[in-house]
Amino acid sequence: MRWRTRACSFMEAWSPDISKMLGLPQDVTLSGISIPAVREAMEEPLPPGPALRFALEDMSAKRRTEFAAGRICAARSLRKLGVIAEFPLPVRDRLPVWPSGVLGSISHCATMAVAMTAMKSRYCALGVDVESLIDPGVALEIQPSVCRDGEWIGLENHVPCRARSVTLLFSAKEALYKALYPLTGRFEDFHAAEFCGCEAGALVLRLTHDWTSCWRAGTRIRVRYAWLDRMVVSAAFIPGKP
Ligand SMILES: CC(C)(COP(=O)(O)OP(=O)(O)OC[C@H]1O[C@@H](n2cnc3c(N)ncnc32)[C@H](O)[C@@H]1OP(=O)(O)O)[C@@H](O)C(=O)NCCC(=O)NCCS
């Protein structure tokens, strides 16, 4: 698949070492790719293989690009883990179907896609999110739906710029949600977890109510983050067996 190879070669030249910036353990693998590189590569005339063609059929051009970018990152991340999987990963209930024994998560924003993977024998939950810096006006508008006043005051002490703090908290909560959703199967809004502290390169979030009988109110989860210019990548990885 020439377009895929081309996109991957673009990535080698572009991608910073996000894993290192996030301080990921060695058994959690992460890959990122520039969306413009994938868009350019997908303009190549070569048709993709039948499985991918089927997956892409009904998608808009934007959706097709982000989907492909996420799947390229997933394949690369799995390879780093030593797992060769079907490409692209199939979809069930809007979620990628990861190979047996593997946990994974995909995210994309306008300029970048990322995927993170780890073995189920070591981790019970994994969620990644990438978010472009939210415009200051939008940040002001959405702040009440992203956090309560008490959280905001705590966070503002650590991250004084509102656009950055709202983007960061939004992204951290999405990463947490994406980590737990495969275990809970339940929608939770942004007030289902709250900011309760900062550590170097990480926000600590606390569940505000029972998400399930296993994921109780008060459970604290650390979400690591790294800024890449005007984007933030957030990663939640929870050790243990489900
Ligand atoms: C599911 C959700 C988090 C996805 O976030 P998004 O910013 O729209 O999109 P992202 O690019 O980060 O992630 C999309 C990818 O996540 C995966 N995904 C989709 N739904 C998911 C879910 N419920 N759980 C985990 N992963 C999911 C898919 O791989 C998808 O990419 P793909 O369709 O190309 O395969 C978001 O749509 C949502 O529902 N948010 C509200 C819930 C929430 O975050 N609550 C906070 C609780 S504290």
Under CATH, the topology of the largest domain is which?
A: Ribosomal Protein L22, Chain A
- Count of domains: 2
Order of helices and strands: HHEHHHEEEEEHHHEEEE
Helicity level, as a percent range? 40-55%
- Could you state the CATH homologous superfamily of the largest domain? 4'-phosphopantetheinyl transferase domain
Largest sheet: 5 strands, antiparallel
Structural class: alpha+beta
Global outline: globular
Total strand count, please?
Answer: 10
CATH architecture of the largest domain, by name, is Alpha-Beta Complex
Alpha plus pi helix count: 8
Q: How much beta, percentage-wise? A: 25-35%
Assembly status: single chain
**CATH class bucket of the largest domain:** Alpha Beta
Average pLDDT score: 88
What is the CA-based Rg, rounded?
18 Å
Side by side, the strands of the main sheet go 6-10-9-8-7
Bound molecules: coenzyme A
> What's the end-to-end separation, in Å?
36 Å
In terms of per-residue confidence, which ranges show pLDDT below 50 for 5 or more consecutive residues? 7-15
Structure, explained:
This protein has 242 residues and is α+β, with helices and mostly antiparallel strands. The protein has 2 domains: 120 residues, Ribosomal Protein L22, Chain A (Alpha-Beta Complex), CATH 3.90.470; 98 residues, no CATH class. The protein contains 8 helices and 10 strands. Strands 6-10-9-8-7 form a 5-stranded antiparallel β-sheet. The longest helix is centred in the C-terminal third of the chain and has 23 residues. It is globular. The chain starts with a helix and ends with a strand. Bound molecules: coenzyme A.
